[in-house]
């Protein structure tokens, strides 16, 4: 349990004015974050709790499609980036001079690392297929980072890489990832406004890639949604000279929405296995190229999209399953021991609890902090409630309070 009397962070009396979005001012006021510089933020304890919950939902869905979690080095050598020719091409690559005239990259993505890493384990068709992922900070040397974290210089990312014997196998798994991503967004309550969006596949494949785009009024992308089959298209696929034509059903009937990207999946085919010469021997003894896919979810970005999505003028209205904790216990006067016992009981039931045991803080101040943090359940333990042998329980969205007997 978390005791506010021992907690370093305080809320602000009013919300700082942030020009481009409402959620950042809520998050600053609630003491969830502090900005370090444009594109880099410090995550304070309650925001970190939210992050871990989102991360775990993503992790559970990746494990469910057989992926193994690994953790790769954030630094990687210039030589490996030269092998794919991307050292001079990826313009957001952070390049670090190091000892003995060496140079390193702070990775914005890990294809250059995971491909040679996994090559060791691939000889025959019996070694395939497999899937690895990691959740790690990534770096992009953005010239103009946004004031909030949609375009960060440092961000947390889940990146999954799959290795297959054929294009057909790759595309089968690609469909599994689509289902897993759908589950992630549904569990985070943004599923109904998050569209699988057809995007350009890159110059090395004729296949499309897919982005997941959440409709958001301050979104940085435009998506074109077919009004007949509801397939969404990335702007770069639309030929503005001609007209919108749905790639699935051929309809021209469409609407344009502002949206923010919360994931992408990419059939890499043999782009990276060619570069690192990753082959396997099939059942007939023939040598073939290994096929790869990569699948990203920017977890810190996703968290900000969720915060913005659930913000209104006044509050950040969390979905209950990712709120920092489930219960906020307001203790008045000398009733800490009773509140602590109650918190222990709740924790045994799998709930998470903040006890507001701050001294010389008025009830209304505590109640307003509980509201500000949007904790789903608020409990009051005071002399008045205890005299009658009960505490008071209020659900965040309800005006009514419930009386719970302590001996229950
Ligand atoms: Zn259509």
Please give a quick description of this structure.
By secondary structure, the chain is α+β, with helices and mostly antiparallel strands. 27% of the residues lie in helices and 30% in strands.
List keywords for this structure.
408 residues; 10 helices; BirA Bifunctional Protein, domain 2; six-stranded mixed sheet; Rossmann fold; binds zinc ion; 22 strands
- Strand arrangement, largest sheet? 1-19-18-20-21-22
Give the CATH H-level superfamily of the largest domain.
Bira Bifunctional Protein, Domain 2
In the predicted model, the low-confidence regions spanning at least 5 consecutive residues are none
CATH architecture of the largest domain: 2-Layer Sandwich
**Ligands, ions, cofactors:** zinc ion
Overall body shape: elongated
| Count of individual helical segments | 10
- Number of self-contained structural domains: 2
What does this structure look like?
By secondary structure, the chain is of the alpha+beta class. The chain has helices spanning 22-29, 45-64, 78-83, 111-119, 167-187, 271-275, 299-309, 336-348, 363-373, 383-387, and strands at 2-3, 33-37, 40-43, 68-69, 75-77, 94-97, 103-106, 130-139, 154-164, 194-199, 209-215, 221-226, 232-234, 254-269, 279-281, 287-289, 291-298, 327-331, 353-356, 377-381, 390-395, 401-405. Strands 1-19-18-20-21-22 form a 6-stranded mixed β-sheet, sandwiched between helices. Strands 10-11-14-12-13 form a 5-stranded mixed beta barrel. Strands 5-7-6 form a 3-stranded antiparallel β-sheet. Helix 1 packs across helix 7 (299-309) and helix 2 (45-64) runs antiparallel to helix 5 (167-187). The mean pLDDT is 90. The structure holds zinc ion. Zinc ion (ZN) binds next to loops. Residues 226, 228-229, 231, 246, 248-249, 251 line the site of zinc ion.
